[in-house]
Amino acid sequence: MNIILASKSPRRKELLSLLDLEFQIITADIDETMDSSLPVTDEVARISYEKALAVANGLSDNTVIISADTIVELNGTLMGKPIDQNNAFNMLKSLSGKSHNVHTAVTVLSGNKHETRVVTTAVTFRKLTDDEINSYIETREPMDKAGAYGIQGRASKFVSGIVGDYFNVVGLPVCELSLMLKNFDINI
């Protein structure tokens, strides 16, 4: 059985490697625009599923595709990857001293069978100074991450609390994924 990770994220590649699976990477090129009038968990699930479908096109039915999508939500406002440094600053400033939710949808697809689950983790940031935010942005680390931060990197010093799955915040809920893979006869 071939396993494909439909993601260019180095963090998802690293996390999937924790499951000791052999897999290939094929990235999906889809429109990841979310409809903010719909529930965020529905939209992140839709995008995850669409990534898997885009990669599945033309592959054999014995291929298992794993895809994921992550979004940060603060009081109903969605935060994807920042478009520039100013956008990153505004995101981090708004997260400062507050709790927010990180939603990651993960999809497993093989042939006509698929399953998508959304995992939500609450993250609390301590109060940040403008200098701390600017110094973090100068590292370029926040520029390819939902909510403009990577909990596993330099932004770890901003996190005063977490409720839920840490790996979900990094971008792949490993525990949930391992349970889903059992439904596709892949035992970890």
What does this structure look like?
This protein has 188 residues and is α/β, with parallel strands linked by helices. It has one domain: Maf protein (Alpha-Beta Complex), CATH 3.90.950. It contains six helices and seven strands. It has helices at 10-17, 40-56, 85-95, 130-138, 166-170, 174-182, and strands at 2-5, 24-25, 63-74, 77-79, 99-110, 113-125, 159-163. Strands 1, 2, 3, 4, 5, 6 and 7 form a seven-stranded mixed β-sheet that branches. The mean pLDDT is 94.
Report the span from N to C terminus. Answer: 14 Å
Global morphology: elongated
Architecture per CATH nomenclature, i.e. the level-2 architecture? Alpha-Beta Complex
Q: Would you identify the regions where 5 or more consecutive residues have pLDDT less than 50?
A: none
What is the H/E string?
A: EHEHEEHEEHEHH
CATH class: Alpha Beta
From the 3D structure, determine the CATH topology: Maf protein
